[in-house]
Amino acid sequence: MDSATILHADLDAFYASVEQLLDPSLRGKPIAVGGGVVLAASYEAKAFGVHGGMSGWAAKELCPELIFVGGHFDQYQRLGDAAIAVLGDYTPLVERISIDEAFADVAGCEHLFGPPARIGETIRARVRAELGLPISVGVARTKHLAKIASQVAKPDGLVVVDPARELEFLHHLPVGLMWGVGPVTEGKLEDEGILTIGQLAEKSPAWVQSLLGRATGEKLSALAWNRDPRPIVTNQRARSAGAQSALGRKPFVERIYRPALCHLADRIASRLRAKSWHGHTITVRVRFRDMRAVTRSLTIDSPTAATTSLAEIAEDLVRVVAADHPDERTITLLAISVARLERDPLVQLELPLGLADEPRRSGSRQGRARLVADHAMDRVRDRFGREAIGYGSVALEASRSVPDAFRQLAEKSL
DNA sequence: TCTGGGGTCCTAGGACCC
DNA sequence: TCTGGGGTCCTAGGACCC
Asked: In this structure, is the CB of residue A108 within 7 Å of any atom belonging to strand C?
């Protein structure tokens, strides 16, 4: 049997811990990062039921003494990077999942650093000593088990799953801890009287698949029996790029959605251009007052990364939504996403001269012309800042519910 | 005064091709 | 007159994750 060499490291209540690190007067107190919406809550706040995604208003109801703090987003990025870098001191096989979480495989590193459990403890001690942050670590033979172990270890702990006792560890835990079991699936399982992973394991794969669908059923049956073949994957790149904006309640009219879409298109397209990508499939999402959301998408032959092209297509798609839902007068969210990404060889040119010679190589002639203009704008922004220049109404779109710096933290690298 | 933002993957139906 | 089967791509919706 393989030995337990997979680590899962997860910074505890990350944003809130950073705030408590930066301002000692906040330590031991219930705090929430954010304002209108809670982006993160300290353990003291979680004890009151406060959690991320909750409205600030609802959080204050639960916890009247809750302290709201604006985020130090640059510090989150710096400290998150630094914590993950500590893992990298023990193995190159590090798979970062998000700003505050990563897997690592330390197989073959034992002769240098000791057994995986000791490496886990060393990592915890170093992150605490060098960065001042609590981090929990799970150690196991598979990613799934290591991730569950780190959840069990929280806050500020280490759990090692002995390969000889994996099912014993796994089967008494609630199904909700499994990767891929969210509220809906948990509810379906509960309706069948299945509360623990062990109870799920007793059911035949065919039965689970009939309840949850082929893929989910297959996956969960395998995980319940601790068959998790996923390897550590380094350097994952995004397969799509998107942006969204919650609007409050706004009338579903062009005067509202046009500038908002332009702003979103600008955000996405400049991200794509910065990494020389363009994409074929554009999807818009419109959410109505009752939180129901619809999507419309279009796949184009010649991929685009031009802000204006993206904005125009998005606008057309939103008009289709409006035509399909004539009774919906209020929208609460707009989103655009670009998928089927490809490298754009022309975008990388310092000065895209001579594009007219080969307009078909990538994108339409109009698309390339727009890209040239976009690149000029990108360069102005590089020198003078993002706010220095923009598309008319876009520059005016200043009502951000969440700061751009926070958005960037969630972006997967392209 | 309820409900953020950026992603991944799966399903199911229809179009289209061979 | 009635009737194939597999594969791929597109679209819309949904569940889930951090």
From this structure: no
Is omega for the bond preceding A115 within 30 degrees of 0, making it cis? no
**Which residues of A are marked as active site?**
101
* Residue A233 belongs to some domain of the structure: no
Whether A248 is covered by a domain: the verdict is yes
Q: Which residue is nearest to nucleotide C11 (CA to C1')?
A: A297
Report the protein residue whose CA lies nearest the C1' of nucleotide B11. Answer: A213
pTM of the model: 0.90
Q: Is the CB of A323 under 7 A from strand C?
A: no
Domain at A94, CATH number: 3.30.70.270
Query: Nucleotides of chain B within 7 Å of a protein C-beta?
Result: 1-12
Instruction: Give domain status of residue A230, yes or no.
Output: no
In which domain, by residue range, is A9 found? 1-161
Among residues A403, A414, A413, the alpha carbon closest in space to that of A71 is found at A403
Residue A199 and residue A264 in one domain: no
Predicted confidence at residue A307, as pLDDT, reads: 95
CB A222 within 8 A of CB A197: no
DSSP for A157-169?
-EEE--GGGHHHH
Strand C proximal to A98 Cβ, under 7 A: yes
Distance A281 CA to C10 C1' (A): 10
From the CA of A216 to the C1' of B9: give the distance in Å. 10
Q: Are residues A43 and A119 in the same domain?
A: yes
Q: Report chain A (414 residues): mean pLDDT per 10 consecutive residues.
A: 92 96 95 90 94 89 93 94 97 96 94 96 98 98 97 96 96 96 95 96 95 93 94 92 94 95 95 94 96 96 94 97 96 97 71 43 68 80 74 51 83 89
Q: How far is CA A225 from CA A18, A36, A228, A240, A397, in A?
A: 37, 42, 9, 33, 51
Residue A7 lies in a domain: yes
